């Protein structure tokens, strides 16, 4: 994918899979689905519970990766990795709202925010600066078989 296409793809709504090094025992990296936010040229934002294993490992590592994919043909994905450059603790209310409205329709987003008001106070927001990108777009490949 071109730089423009990969950034546009990542900015679209996908559930991301966060990956972070897990030094506990002989574990593979921790991989977990997350809601995220991204604007072309900006930082990847991931919100999670302050005391979660995910947050602890991101803090310890100082970096994480995120992969977003299109789950129907023609398949596409963007994977990005980089350092954590800031942590918002607590998460600004506007960020909670923006993330909820990114993934849910307005009525469901409002209900989600109200129902999770107490839990959301326990979240932190990691800012990651994209450093390495990996992408694939199988559109041309799929067209050969249509």
CATH A-level architecture: Roll
Uncertain residue segments: none
What is the domain tally? Answer: 1
Individual helix count? 6
Query: Shape, please?
Result: globular
Distance between the ends: 21 Å
Radius of gyration: 16 Å
Q: Secondary-structure element sequence? A: HEEEEHEEHHHEEH
- Helical fraction equals 25-40%
Biggest β-sheet strands, sense, barrel: 8 strands, antiparallel
CATH class call: Mainly Beta
Report mean pLDDT, rounded to a whole number: 94
Counted beta strands: 8
As for the CATH topology, it is Pnp Oxidase, Chain A
**Full CATH superfamily name:** Electron Transport, Fmn-binding Protein, Chain A
Structural class: alpha+beta
- The amount of beta strand, in percent, is 25-35%
Q: What's this, in brief?
A:
This is Pyridoxamine 5'-phosphate oxidase family protein. This protein is an alpha+beta fold.
